[in-house]
């Protein structure tokens, strides 16, 4: 038993993470083969490996194909992976802080807030204002951070956040924020179509710049949240209980909310509103690997990446030649899942 | 040796002062029970002692150092708390929960090592939860879950253990089990223990010291025998109680008496006197109720140590007593007759009769001869409690023949007195 519990567990965790990473890698490659323009899968493989290995070996590929793969599809797929990771991570984190499995950036208004912040930045042309840096994520961050605090303050009853109050306050705030987004759209002129499409949640305009702008947030968020994994476990058994075990709960909570909001904001500023990833993925991964955040955090982020790549591959080809925003796909999958979860949890939470 | 010391603590919660000037000391191998009515500040005191609620005034010292100036992890290595258990969220395995007890001993991303596993195993074996290791937490019963969280607290390797109503919502068998366990661990691991209680009897049985709280202040603090007395309890809980030494456990036990102070004060004396012939705990209820109705009471002949005696002696009434388990002597028989003489009514409860207490029956006969109104509660009927070979039964017939009022129950008897 003693041996059985730690070493094999760590070993198992390593296998899980390696497998998920491998799967993600395969997803990235294979998703790059999917799209409106036909590029032969083998060609795709060669183009990507040529870049990765920096080798100069000669293989005759169509230059247009190389551009399609390297400048359109690959950045898009990688951005999808990063956004999927970010949303999934944010979901895991919000769920731990709210002590509630229904918390997700979309549900608690964090995504809508980020959308509002980002639309304001775009519409009023301050997007690229500050020191030439892309300030959209910054605006999105403030937009996503504030609703979380508000929802948390309103929906908290004692030391718990009941599903009822969480959902109600989350919905109210989301509706309010969406109204504000619509209001900003009125002021948008030539940007209207872009914003609208972006709000639906999609990657059709994604390029390498987006990848670079989300990457630092994601790395900080991933490692930061993973650092508090053990503390998050303890916090799930009660906040005061966690304090008794030496966790500085308020400090940890504040840092986690900050990081989760950064993740949400960076995801939203790249891809718009993509709902339910942070709800579906952590829940399914928890069933597979258990609730320990030391495995849940890495696995959920990898799985979130795979999930979004998969969803977007479908979005790209399902109505060819028309391309769907991936937000529609995740919402179509996530809505029913959300209801299922609500029904399942109803008894536990006496809704 | 002081392990944990609180000096002049005052804490408030949302600007409302909840505890005021509380000082106490916890020593290794000793259990302190914290008792008090709801809202008296017990839990607030525990939160202040466990570095959760910073005091407005005063200090908490652990090994002489200010608790609130040590970082939380170092505190958690010395001080563990068994909180009131909330329903667990997400499905942790029991083993994972106990493993969390090692949290204060681990840095950053460090994983549990061999020593941590050893400590966890010991904690689980000590609390008899090792066999539950693979079970999911929310499959456990209340008692099991309480033990698991106790194991988690022990896995912290604490020197001080604070418990918030460890027996709340548990069946009586689990209450005893968990308290026995805590007591054993306290002695074996030299823990200094403080625990909030609702139950006097558990507290007196398992604690060395008691702290009685009222309105956020210490009403009394000391050894169990010094603190748990009717006067203190009445002051804090506004209820009259009997405090006795239990013959089996030799610990104090507390029984509330039905009479409420204010009720009794308002009561008019009816100026009538009732003598009760009772014994073998057949009279206690009647004594309480009749006192409530305002009668003056006497009783006899009762054996010392009889539960009726234990009860009646706290009521400040005339009693005729006999040595424990001895037959009634002539002299006490005569004293008894004297009391009967003074009484307006005589009640005889359904005492089991043997040779030793037949004189009580005779005194009932005498009462009739004196012309007193005699009420006989005959339930269960005399046939079932006659151990004299028929003699008691014959005397009962004689009582009936001489006009004693036979009643079927003690309620009927009370009814009769109420109508009088």
Question: Can you tell me about this structure?
Answer:
With 351 residues, chain A is mainly alpha-helical. Chain A has one domain: ABC transporter involved in vitamin B12 uptake, BtuC (Orthogonal Bundle). Chain A has helices at residues 2-5, 7-32, 41-53, 63-98, 110-123, 136-155, 163-187, 192-200, 208-227, 229-236, 239-244, 249-271, 277-289, 293-317, 326-349. The longest helix of chain A has 36 residues, at 63-98. The radius of gyration of chain A is 21 Å and the shape is globular. Chain A starts with a helix and ends with a helix. By secondary structure, chain B is of the alpha/beta class. Chain B is 36% helix and 24% strand. Chain B is built from 16 helices and 18 strands. In chain B, the strands form 4 sheets. Chain B has a 6-stranded mixed β-sheet with strand order 6-7-8-3-9-10, sandwiched between helices. In chain B, strands 15-14-13-16-17-18 form a 6-stranded parallel β-sheet, sandwiched between helices. A 4-stranded antiparallel β-sheet of chain B has the order 2-1-4-5, covered by helices on one side. In chain B, β11 (241-245) and β12 (252-256) form a beta hairpin. In chain B, α4 crosses α5, α11 (284-293) packs parallel to α16 (410-419) and α13 packs parallel to α14. Residues 260-266 of chain B have low confidence and may be disordered. Chain A binds chain B through residues 1-2, 5-6, 10, 99-101, 159-160, 226-227, 229-231, 233-234, 236-238, 240-241, 243-248, 286, 290-292, 348, and chain B through 47, 50-52, 72-77, 79-81, 83, 86-93, 95-97, 100-101, 103-104, 106, 108-109, 111-113, 117-118, 121, 130, 133, 153, 156.
Structure, briefly:
The complex is a heterodimer of chains A (351) and B (420). Chain A has 15 helices and no strands.
Terminal CA distance of chain B reads 64 Å
Overall radius of gyration of chain B: 29 Å
Question: What is the CATH level 1 assignment of chain A?
Answer: Mainly Alpha
Alpha carbon gyration radius of chain A: 21 Å
Examine the secondary-structure arrangement and name the CATH architecture of chain A.
Orthogonal Bundle
Structural class of chain A: mainly alpha
Main structural class of chain B: alpha/beta
């Amino acid at each position: 038993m003693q041996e059985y519990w730690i070493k094999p567990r760590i070993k198992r965790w390593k296998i899980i993470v390696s497998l998920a990473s491998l799967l993600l890698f395969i997803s990235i490659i294979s998703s790059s083969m999917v799209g409106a323009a036909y590029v032969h899968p083998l060609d795709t493989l060669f183009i990507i490996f040529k870049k990765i290995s920096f080798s100069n070996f000669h293989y005759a590929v169509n230059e247009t194909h190389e551009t399609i793969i390297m400048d359109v599809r690959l950045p898009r797929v990688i951005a999808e992976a990063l956004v999927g990771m970010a949303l999934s991570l944010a979901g895991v984190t919000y769920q731990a802080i709210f002590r509630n499995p229904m918390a997700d950036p979309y549900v608690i208004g964090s995504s809508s807030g980020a959308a509002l912040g980002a639309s304001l930045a775009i519409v009023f042309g301050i997007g690229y204002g500050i020191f030439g840096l892309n300030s959209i994520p910054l605006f999105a961050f403030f937009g996503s951070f504030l609703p979380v605090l508000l929802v948390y303050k309103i929906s908290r009853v004692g030391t718990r956040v009941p599903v009822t109050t969480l959902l109600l306050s989350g919905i109210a705030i989301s509706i309010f924020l969406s109204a504000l987004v619509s209001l900003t759209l009125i002021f948008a002129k030539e940007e209207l179509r872009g914003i609208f499409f972006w709000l639906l949640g999609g990657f059709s305009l994604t390029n390498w710049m987006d990848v670079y702008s989300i990457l630092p947030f994601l790395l900080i968020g991933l490692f930061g949240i993973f650092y508090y994994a053990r503390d998050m476990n303890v916090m799930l058994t009660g906040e005061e209980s966690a304090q008794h075990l030496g966790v500085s709960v308020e400090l940890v909570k504040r840092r986690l909310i900050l990081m989760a909001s950064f993740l949400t904001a960076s995801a939203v500023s790249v891809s718009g509103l993509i709902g339910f990833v942070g709800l579906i993925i952590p829940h399914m991964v928890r069933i597979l690997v258990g609730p320990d955040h030391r495995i849940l955090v890495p696995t959920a982020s990898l799985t979130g990446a795979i999930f979004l790549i998969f969803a977007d591959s479908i979005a790209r080809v399902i109505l060819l030649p028309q391309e769907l925003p991936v937000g529609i796909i995740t919402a179509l999958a996530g809505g029913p899942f959300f209801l299922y979860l609500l029904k399942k949890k109803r008894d536990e939470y006496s809704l | 040796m002081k392990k944990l010391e609180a000096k002049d603590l005052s804490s408030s919660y949302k600007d409302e002062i909840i505890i005021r000037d509380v000082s106490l000391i916890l020593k290794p191998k000793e259990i302190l029970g914290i008792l008090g009515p709801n809202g008296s500040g017990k839990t607030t005191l525990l939160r202040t002692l466990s570095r959760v609620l910073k005091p407005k005034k005063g200090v908490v010292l652990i090994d002489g150092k200010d608790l609130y100036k040590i970082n939380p992890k170092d505190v958690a290595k010395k001080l563990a708390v068994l909180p009131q258990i909330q329903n667990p969220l997400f499905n942790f395995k029991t083993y994972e929960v106990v493993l969390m007890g090692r949290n204060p001993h681990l840095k950053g991303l460090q994983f549990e090592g061999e020593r941590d596993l050893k400590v966890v195993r010991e904690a689980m074996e000590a609390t008899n939860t090792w066999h539950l290791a693979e079970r999911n937490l929310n499959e456990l019963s209340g008692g099991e879950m309480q033990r698991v969280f106790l194991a988690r607290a022990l896995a912290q390797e604490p020197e001080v253990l604070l418990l918030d109503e460890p027996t709340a919502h548990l069946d009586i068998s689990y209450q005893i089990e968990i308290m026995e366990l805590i007591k054993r661990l306290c002695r074996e691991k030299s823990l200094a223990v403080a625990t909030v209680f609702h139950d006097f009897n558990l507290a007196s049985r398992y604690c060395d010291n008691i702290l009685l709280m009222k309105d956020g202040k210490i009403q009394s603090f000391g050894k169990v025998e010094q603190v748990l007395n009717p006067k203190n309890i009445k002051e804090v809980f506004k209820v009259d109680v009997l405090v006795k030494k239990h013959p089996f456990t030799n610990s104090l036990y507390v029984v509330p008496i039905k009479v409420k102070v204010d009720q009794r004060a308002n009561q008019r004396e009816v100026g009538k006197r009732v003598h009760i012939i009772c014994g073998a705990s057949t009279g206690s209820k009647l004594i309480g109720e009749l006192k409530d109705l305002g009668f003056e009471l006497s009783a006899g002949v009762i054996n010392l140590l009889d539960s009726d005696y234990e009860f009646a002696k706290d009521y400040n009434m005339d009693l005729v007593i006999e040595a424990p388990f001895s037959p009634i002597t002539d002299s006490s028989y005569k004293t008894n007759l004297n009391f009967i003489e003074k009484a307006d009514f005589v009640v005889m409860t359904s005492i089991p009769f043997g040779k030793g207490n037949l004189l009580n029956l005779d005194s009932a006969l005498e009462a009739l001869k004196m012309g007193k109104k005699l009420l006989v509660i005959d339930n269960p009927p005399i046939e079932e409690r006659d151990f004299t070979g028929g003699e008691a039964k014959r005397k009962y017939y004689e009582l009936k023949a001489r006009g004693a009022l036979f009643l079927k129950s003690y309620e009927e008897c009370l009814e009769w007195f109420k109508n009088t």
